[in-house]
């Protein structure tokens, strides 16, 4: 019995060792069938990757060819339009609060007004009027950027160095005035449609409102307050571009003197500095002439026509009359109505829009 048990144990041990040897001798990569399946999968993935690279390359070349065939001036304008659409849409809620404070003189602070809009109209109410805003800001910003870049390039012709502060101010003011004269009717249209009590105009749409203004008040009504607008926008634009250009030039000069690859060009500046300098320039420009912006908005409203007795285009006398009316009724605070939401809007708006504008110019190969 004992010998039989021992022989059985030896037999079992032999079988175990044989199995272990068999396992150790088995191929580590699996069976030939599994290795073949993995190889085919790998080859398929490589083929897909190569096809994808070829397709992307062809699309990229097609896009580059299309860009090169497109008119340079059109590409320049499209860069400004893209920046305007993105920045304005992102910050539309702040623009709505500013309109309520600045034009409709709605009581309460910015936070209270924001909560009231959400409660009364829903979250979508914060974007009310954004289409009208885009109708005004897209052509305005496009012409503004386009005019400034071309005026600056014209002044730099035959000049070795940078523009002076006075030349930067002239370029900025010129850009603002050209954009205002071309797009001011759209600004009047927007102001009328967003004014409290004109909800019927807003529901009819921009074309219906435009036709009503022309029929009731004449075509010159579309330029109501244009002179105060030029007085307001000209200096604001001049300050913005002069500030941004000075910050950018100083940054590139310091980078060059630090020995980071020799002379730098504008497109080599880190994008985060475009955001920073654009925001700072926007704040400086907006706060320096904000009371003029309030006067400009008020002069566009029909109620101010009777209060100030101004003509169709507005004038500096009507502006001074309105200034006395605001100071008498609202005090100095009235000249800064909506300043807080405006500052909160201008800082990111100027930063985002100028950053996108610069990046769009690089993408569309606009070297100005």
UniProtKB/TrEMBL annotation:
Solcar repeats: 71-154, 163-250, 273-363
Gene3D superfamilies assigned to the protein according to its UniProt record, in alphabetical order: Mitochondrial carrier domain
Pfam families per record: Mito_carr
Keyword annotations of the record: Membrane, Repeat, Transmembrane, Transport
Gene Ontology terms: biological process: transmembrane transport
Extent of the signal sequence: none
Residue span of region Disordered: 1-49
Topology of the protein relative to the lipid bilayer: Multi-pass membrane protein
A Gene Ontology cellular-component term: membrane
Key word Membrane present: yes
Locations listed in the record: Membrane
Domain of life: Eukaryota
UniProt main location, coarse: membrane
Family according to the record: Belongs to the mitochondrial carrier (TC 2.A.29) family.
Protein name: Mitochondrial adenine nucleotide transporter
Source organism of this protein record: Chloropicon roscoffensis
């Amino acid at each position: 019995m004992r010998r039989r048990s021992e022989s059985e144990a030896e037999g079992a041990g032999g079988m175990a060792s044989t199995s272990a040897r068999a396992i150790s001798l088995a191929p580590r990569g699996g069976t030939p069938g599994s290795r073949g399946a993995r190889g085919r999968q790998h080859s398929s993935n490589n083929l897909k990757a190569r096809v994808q690279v070829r397709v992307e390359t062809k699309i990229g070349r097609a896009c580059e060819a299309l860009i090169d065939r497109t008119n340079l001036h059109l590409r320049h304008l499209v860069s400004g339009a893209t920046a305007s659409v993105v920045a304005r849409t992102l910050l539309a809620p702040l623009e709505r609060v500013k309109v309520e404070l600045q034009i409709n003189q709605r009581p309460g602070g910015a936070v209270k007004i924001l909560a009231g809009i959400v409660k009364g109209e829903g979250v979508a109410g914060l974007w009310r009027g954004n289409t009208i805003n885009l109708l005004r800001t897209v052509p305005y910003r496009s012409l503004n950027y386009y005019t400034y870049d071309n005026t600056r390039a014209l002044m730099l012709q035959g000049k070795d160095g940078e523009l002076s502060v006075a030349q930067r101010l002239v370029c900025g003011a010129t850009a603002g005035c050209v954009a205002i004269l071309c797009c001011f009717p759209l600004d009047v249209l927007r102001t009328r449609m967003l004014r409290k009590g004109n909800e019927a105009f807003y529901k009819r749409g921009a074309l219906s409102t435009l036709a009503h203004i022309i029929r009731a008040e004449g075509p010159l009504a579309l330029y109501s307050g244009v002179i105060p607008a030029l007085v307001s926008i000209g200096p604001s634009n001049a300050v913005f571009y002069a500030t941004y250009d000075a910050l950018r030039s100083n940054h590139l000069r310091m980078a060059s003197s630090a020995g980071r690859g020799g002379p730098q060009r504008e497109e080599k500046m880190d994008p985060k500095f475009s955001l920073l300098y654009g925001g700072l320039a926007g704040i400086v420009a907006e706060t320096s002439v904000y009371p003029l912006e309030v006067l400009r908005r008020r002069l566009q409203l029909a109620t101010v026509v009777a209060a100030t007795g101004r003509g169709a285009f507005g004038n500096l006398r009507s502006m001074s009359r309105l200034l006395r009316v605001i100071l008498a009724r609202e005090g100095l605070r009235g000249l800064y109505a909506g300043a807080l939401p405006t500052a909160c809007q201008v800082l990111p708006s100027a930063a985002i829009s100028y950053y996108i504008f610069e990046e769009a110019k690089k993408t569309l190969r606009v070297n100005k």
